[in-house]
């Protein structure tokens, strides 16, 4: 009995030693330069695009590990994919039946830079290249073809799970301008079957057009037949919350998309500051929704609608600040919003503002018009004031306001144009800006310059008037917030 046990121990030890030697030999074989080159060639042939790596190893407990993986861009400028490591854990016995059953695939720290091709599609590098049809030898017979097919029968590949950690994805348009970027991405796919992939994705930071910043973005997703669907999306944006859903057809021309977003409690001051605006232009909380659809890369195809409201906010509007400072009307210097909202539609490469309203206790600004996607705007607006404000205005300004719908209101119409970043308006001229400027200038001259002597007046030369034009040109007034508003003067 002891001898039999001894034999078993010896055999078991020999098997362990042979297994260890086998694993060591296989690992050394996989790590050899020739084998790594062959792995690169096989993976490149399978994906249809060049794949490079710096190292590889194979163990029963650690699976196949590949380090330093890179996939170049189709044009050779930079890399489409960079990953520090790739690991695949698979079963060995199914290999004898030409089956590759991968229990799990792990990709660590990948970086993907995805550029739209000339057709406006985000496609894999292999799909961007037109493959030449394979020519058959002239003397090849039907029997030989069947023999080749039998010999080259491919392995069936099944992937059960997929995990990606600390990834970065950047989507660029045809001119390599940022469309959207995802940072510190984690993807878990517990179920992969056929052409359908489902899982969940998280990203610490998402940047849209380098102007809109979202944090802690998470969403379940599915990818089927080239359609990427994100549902139950949740995110934080400028101290507020955002939720919604979107779809993207990656395989079709210009990638058709749909977006349905709802947001609540967004800090408008932080939102504008992150987008490059000066702080303090507006405060309060933004609420609303936006529904859009169209084709990525085709602005004229984008359509949809939306609603935005501002709650408990203030607005500093440059022109109103100037008027309020000159006339000592605090309601104009700082608009304490009681009600503010905007209803809009998108089509024909522009946003149609159907109704824009800013209302305080004593005044109201309403507007409608168009804003193009490049920021140019043309709005017809109306300023309505109540009797309290109207009584504070000088007589030459009062006459420019017309009777409102009721006896307590007066209004004046004006135009807002320019761009969203630098709007302009003719409201200054319509309320009598030239006279206001003259009055204020006269006050300052009387205070600081004193009265001029008659001799000095005689020496002055009167400017010549040109036919068909005014003697003095009215200065253009920008509606941007003024860093140094006009000093206050007594009424």
Summarize the structure.
The protein has helices spanning 2-31, 33-47, 125-128, 142-151, 268-274, 318-327, 330-333, 387-392, 395-398, 427-430, 433-449, 454-459, and strands at 55-59, 63-72, 79-90, 99-108, 111-115, 156-159, 162-172, 178-193, 196-208, 212-224, 227-237, 240-249, 256-267, 282-295, 298-315, 335-336, 339-347, 350-359, 363-372, 377-386, 402-403, 409-418, 423-425. The protein is built from 12 helices and 23 strands. Strand 18 (350-359) and strand 19 form a beta hairpin.
Describe the model.
The chain is an alpha+beta fold and 491 residues long. Helices cover 24% and strands 45% of the residues. The protein contains twelve helices and 23 strands. The chain has helices at 2-31, 33-47, 125-128, 142-151, 268-274, 318-327, 330-333, 387-392, 395-398, 427-430, 433-449, 454-459, and strands spanning 55-59, 63-72, 79-90, 99-108, 111-115, 156-159, 162-172, 178-193, 196-208, 212-224, 227-237, 240-249, 256-267, 282-295, 298-315, 335-336, 339-347, 350-359, 363-372, 377-386, 402-403, 409-418, 423-425. It has a 23-stranded mixed β-sheet that branches. Strand 1 and strand 2 (63-72) form a beta hairpin. It is elongated. The model is unreliable at 4-27, 129-141, 147-151 and 465-491 (pLDDT under 50).
């Amino acid at each position: 009995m002891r001898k039999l046990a001894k034999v078993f121990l010896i055999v078991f030890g020999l098997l362990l030693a042979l297994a260890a030697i086998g694993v060591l030999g296989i690992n050394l074989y996989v790590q050899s330069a020739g084998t790594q080159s062959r792995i690169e060639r096989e993976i490149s042939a399978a994906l249809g695009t060049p794949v490079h790596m710096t190292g590889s190893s194979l163990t029963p407990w650690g699976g196949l590990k590949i380090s330093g993986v890179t996939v170049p861009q189709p044009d050779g400028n930079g890399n489409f994919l960079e990953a520090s490591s790739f690991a695949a854990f698979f079963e060995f016995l199914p290999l004898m039946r030409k089956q590759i059953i991968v229990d799990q695939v792990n990709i660590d720290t990948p970086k993907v830079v995805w550029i739209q091709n000339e057709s406006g599609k985000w496609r894999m590098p292999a799909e961007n290249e037109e493959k030449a049809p394979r020519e058959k030898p002239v003397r090849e017979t039907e029997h030989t073809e069947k023999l080749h097919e039998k010999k080259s029968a491919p392995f069936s590949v099944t992937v059960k799970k997929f995990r990606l950690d600390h990834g970065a994805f950047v989507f660029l348009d045809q001119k390599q301008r940022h469309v959207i970027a995802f940072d510190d991405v984690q993807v878990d796919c517990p179920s992969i079957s056929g052409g359908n992939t489902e899982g969940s994705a998280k990203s610490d930071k998402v940047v849209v057009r380098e102007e809109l910043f979202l944090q802690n973005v998470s969403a379940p997703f599915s990818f089927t037949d080239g359609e990427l669907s994100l549902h139950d999306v949740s995110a934080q944006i400028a101290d507020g919350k955002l939720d919604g859903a979107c779809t993207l057809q990656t395989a079709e021309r210009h990638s058709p998309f749909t977006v349905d977003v709802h947001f609540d409690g967004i800090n408008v001051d932080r939102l504008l500051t992150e987008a490059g605006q000066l702080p303090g232009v507006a405060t309060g909380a933004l609420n609303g929704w936006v529904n859009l659809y169209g084709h990525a890369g085709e602005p004229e195809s984008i359509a949809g609608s939306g609603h935005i409201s501002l709650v408990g906010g203030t607005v500093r509007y440059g022109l109103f600040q100037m008027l309020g400072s000159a006339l000592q009307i605090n309601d104009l210097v700082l608009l304490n919003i009681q009600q503010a909202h905007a209803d809009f539609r998108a089509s024909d490469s522009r946003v149609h503002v159907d109704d824009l309203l800013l209302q305080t206790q004593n005044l109201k600004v309403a507007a409608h018009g168009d804003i193009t996607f490049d920021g140019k705007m043309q709005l017809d607006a109306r300023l309505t004031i109540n009797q309290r404000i109207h009584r504070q205005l000088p007589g030459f300004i009062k006459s420019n306001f017309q009777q409102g719908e009721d006896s307590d209101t007066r209004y004046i119409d004006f135009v807002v144009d320019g761009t969203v970043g630098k709007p302009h308006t003719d409201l200054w001229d319509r309320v009598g800006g030239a006279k206001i400027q003259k009055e204020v200038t006269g006050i300052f001259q009387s205070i600081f310059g004193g009265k001029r002597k008659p001799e000095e007046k005689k020496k002055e030369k009167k400017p010549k008037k040109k036919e068909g034009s005014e003697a003095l040109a009215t200065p253009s007034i920008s509606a941007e917030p003024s860093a140094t508003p006009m000093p206050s003067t007594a009424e």
